[in-house]
Design a protein that fits this description.
The radius of gyration is 16 Å and the shape is globular. It is an alpha/beta fold. Helix 1 packs across helix 9, helix 2 packs across helix 4 and helix 2 packs across helix 5. Helices cover 45% and strands 17% of the residues. The strands form two sheets. The chain has a five-stranded parallel beta sheet with strand order 2-6-1-7-8. Bound molecules: 2'-deoxycytidine-5'-monophosphate. 2'-deoxycytidine-5'-monophosphate (DC) binds next to helix 2, helix 4 and helix 8.
């Protein structure tokens, strides 16, 4: 699983299930780097929109992808991403990106490039990585896998409380039904229902799951 004894904790789940918050807290608690793989798909999507690429034309997406320089880094204990030298943050949460990201993320060449970048993190550090296919595709051999779920109502309410337009149900449907690396509960993953947890109790539940999966605090 690991390079140089580094290991990965995979946190997957649908949009707005609270997996980023849990992953961040776990990274802090365990002294690991938190990698937000969704930000990578968002960054590539943001650039496609900037360039005016027809995202429904996979050939155009692949051509633009080949011309892009995607750089992944770490700041503090969080992953960062730059496209063609521009480090991105707030841009990635824009409504236009929310609406387009599932289309771009379904293109196999996009996934191939970003999965490689995700795996490359283990060359340097152990990670808590959150996404949709981390336990199933990116690190299928890791012992540490959690699938964070929450009811559709709770997830929609979370997004609107953040003040962004994001049709989480439509995005989940697209992410779950695509051919390449769909959202699913990976073999070996334990489901954490985050519909009614506080942040503290969700993190405690996640740590308990990891303990049952064999993680001892390092
Ligand atoms: O986690 P997020 O909502 O920021 O992810 C944005 C989109 O990126 C999500 O709708 C699907 C895609 N994604 C993916 O396909 N695979 C991942 N590992 C992470 C995100």
């Amino acid at each position: 699983m690991s390079e140089n004894d580094h290991y990965a904790i995979a946190i997957d789940g649908p949009a707005a299930s609270g997996k980023s918050t849990i992953a961040k807290c776990l990274a802090r608690e365990l002294g690991l780097v938190m990698v937000n793989s969704g930000a990578m798909y968002r960054a590539v999507t943001w650039k496609m929109l900037e360039l005016g690429v027809d995202i429904h034309n996979a050939d155009s997406v692949v051509a633009a992808l080949r011309a892009m320089q995607v750089e992944c880094g770490v700041e503090g204990c969080f992953s960062t991403i730059a496209i063609d030298g521009r480090w991105l943050s707030e841009e990635l949460r824009a409504s236009a990106v929310n609406q387009a990201v599932s289309v771009v993320a379904a293109v196999p060449e996009v996934r191939e490039l970003l999965v490689q970048k995700q795996r490359d993190y283990l060359k340097h550090t152990s990670v808590v990585m959150e996404g949709r296919d981390i336990g199933s595709v990116v690190f299928p051999d890791t012992r540490y896998k959690i699938y964070v779920d929450a009811s559709e109502e709770v997830r929609a309410a979370r997004r609107s409380a953040e003040g962004v337009t994001d049709s989480v149900a439509a995005r989940d449907k697209a992410d779950s039904n695509r051919k390449t690396a769909p959202l699913l509960i990976a073999p070996g993953a334990v489901v954490l229902d985050n519909s009614h947890h506080t942040v503290e109790s969700a993190v405690a539940a996640a740590l308990e799951i990891l303990r049952t999966q064999g993680l001892t605090k390092k």
